[in-house]
Amino acid sequence: MRKSLLDHLLDWAGRIVLIAILAFVLLPFVVVAIASFNDGAILSFPPREWSWRWYANAFQYRDFGAGLTNSLKIAVFGATIALIAGAGFAYVLDRYEFRFKNTLNGILMSPLIIPNFTIGLGLLILSAAASLPRNLWLVVATHVVIVMPFVVRSVYVSLQNFERRFEQAAESLGGSPWHVLRTITLPLLAPGLASGGLFAAILSFNEFTASLFVVNQSTQTLPVAMYNYVREYADPTLAAVSVIYVLAVAVILLIVHKFFRLEKVLNVE
Amino acid sequence: MSSETRNDAAVQIDGVSKSFSGTVALEPIWLKIRRGEFLTLLGPSGCGKTTLLNLIAGFLEADEGELFIDRELVTQVPPHQREIGIVFQNYALFPHMTVAQNVAYGLRTRRVSKAETAERVAEALALVKLQDFADRRPRQLSGGQQQRVALARALVIRPRVLLLDEPFSALDRNLRTAMQVELREIQTRLGLTTVFVTHDQNEALSMSDRIAVMSQGRVRQIGAPDDIYDRPANLFVSTFVGDANLFDATLQGVQGGAAELIVGGAPLPVETYQEDLPEPGPVTLFVRPEQCRLTGAEEQGAVPAIVALSVYQGSYAELHLDCAAARGGRIMLRVPAAKALPAGIPVGIALPRTGPAIYAVEDADKEVA
User: Which domains are assigned to chain A?
Assistant: First the structure.
């Protein structure tokens, strides 16, 4: 079948729109990546001379190393706790009918509409009132509150799409509810759970606003360390850190892809 | 109820009913499924057949009534303690396990020894001719093979009852027929009590020892396939199972065992199998297509009709006829393909004197499937 001129034009228009969207999404990163190689001590664009020295500086600056360690610890603990609690809640939400189910669901989803700085401020006030130490666990708790709704949603969607016949077949074959959960439900939900955990970890790793309220010098996360850096210095080190940051997340995603197939984890299949 | 009759029943359903948030899915139902019997629950979607199956399996809890399997009261027993095998429509094979692991699942939950498990899995796979596929994953198998695995998985636990939930509907026609024969052979050989749910009347007629025809949460008739087909108890069954030609008729009375009818203006004495006939007056006469005989338009006593359409079906042709005396103005006859007639030809239909059934008109209005 021959295409009309209009079809051709629409075809091209479509491609241009697609390229424009891609460019729009990727442009900030491209600009930052280019700026990170700027030899000059002031963040400017485009660079006149090229250098790796801001990358060396990024690795030497103590706060970034400490911040990265904190961020990784918080992401791992926060995502794990949010995954276990969130998956449990999603399961209850999917499988059981009870009073105040909607209310409970609403409360758990509320961090989606409450701004992160409110959550951070609230927990800061709360921890001060309860005389809790401002240690890493306070930051972890803050992140759990923020990322849990995403985990609940992600696992809940997996559960909604879950074929109950698998469980029924296993039950008819003599599997007790606990045995079926262990041998059928959890293994089959693994991609959904990995998805929830991965999102939680990435969200936690990127979280800045709430963290700013609850960290102190020794518990500051990488984003907070970066913010503090940029308040003092205006050199391209931050651009270099950004590039490293993006590459690190990309590597994590690649590893996940290798073990779980990303399309499945991200529910886009 | 004597203990003897209960002995005989592999599954006994005593007044079991089920509603879902106020909507009745199953009216209270009494049913005995005999040991080794192949019983089919046949009906349109929403008739309650799947609800009944889920109640027997234990996936649903009955609102009222009691359920016995092998004389044991199981109304409150959870599914994993009921010892029943199930084959689902989509087979529900565990995708993260191999064929052998799937089949072994029910043995592992029973803590059967490794040696015995291996032996029984091999035996079950041999039964369904899949010995060479033990290490495959379900997604590497064809639909027919998946179904055999599902069957082997259900049979390996030596269930007290085998439940089949529309297991053939995902297969194409040739494979379906082959699987039906194979399943029936295995079932007969093992003497396995089987409850089969389907909406396909051909499947029901060809496979069952008995059929329970269901609609609107009730069993409308239960009997052997030929009972259901030749002697439908009501208009719903007559039209849901097989093809039916319905005529508007007038019942004048019963004389010497024959019902005196007027059909299409002509008198027709009919000997029917029915014990209860409707009151004299307007009635619906039910006749199978193969009981009608095509005659010349002029023939004495024949109901006049005109050929509207002839549909070629290979070994025979379906003649769709416009007929003023028929309900809805249309009836269908099958004739040898060579005797098909073109549209517009006037013909006569000779109705049989024995075999047809007479139903009240009110029935017809509410019950035609």
Answer: 62-265 (1.10.3720.10)
Domain B237-367: CATH superfamily, name plus number = Nucleic acid-binding proteins (2.40.50.140)
Residue of B nearest to A176 (CA): B80
- In chain B, what residues touch A187 (CB-CB under 8 Å)? 96
Give yes or no for residue B224 having a pLDDT over 80.
yes
Residues of A in contact with B58 (CB under 8 A): 171
In the prediction, which pLDDT does A32 show?
87
> Of A166, A168, A188, which is closest to B59 when you measure between CB atoms?
A168
Q: pLDDT tens for residues A44-82?
A: 777 778 888 888 888 888 888 899 899 999 999 999 999
Q: Do B86 and A169 touch (CB under 8 A)?
A: yes
pTM of the model: 0.80
Assess whether the previous peptide bond of B225 is cis (omega < 30° from 0). no
Give the strands of the sheet with B210-215, arranged side by side: B84-87, B161-165, B194-198, B38-42, B210-215, B218-223
**Measured between beta carbons, which residues in chain B are less than 8 angstroms from residue A170?**
94, 105
Share of chain B above pLDDT 90, in %: 67
2.30.42.10, 3.40.50.300, 3.30.70.360, 3.60.10.10: CATH of B6-233: 3.40.50.300
Closest of B275, B339, B331, B264 to residue B302, by C-alpha: B264
Q: Where are the beta strands (DSSP E) in A98-197?
A: none
Neighbour-count burial of A21, counting CB atoms closer than 10 A to its CB (0-12 exposed, 13-18 middle, 19+ buried) = exposed
Query: In which residue ranges of chain B is CATH 3.40.50.300 found?
Result: 6-233
**What are A60's strand-pairing partners?**
none
ipTM, interface predicted TM-score of the complex: 0.83
Contact A172 B105 (CB under 8 A): no
Integer Cα distance of B116 and B127 in angstroms? 16
- Structure confidence at residue A170 (pLDDT): 96
Which 174-233 residues of chain A touch chain B by CB within 8 A? 174-177, 179-180, 183-184, 187-188
> Where does CATH 2.40.50.140 sit in chain B?
237-367
User: Which residues in chain A touch residue B163, judged by CB atoms under 8 angstroms apart?
Assistant: 172
pLDDT of B338 > 90? The answer is: no
The predicted structure's pLDDT at residue A265:
55
Contact with chain A for residue B85, Cβ under 8 A: yes
Give the pLDDT score at A8.
84
Taking CA–CA distances from B111, the nearest residue in chain A reads A174
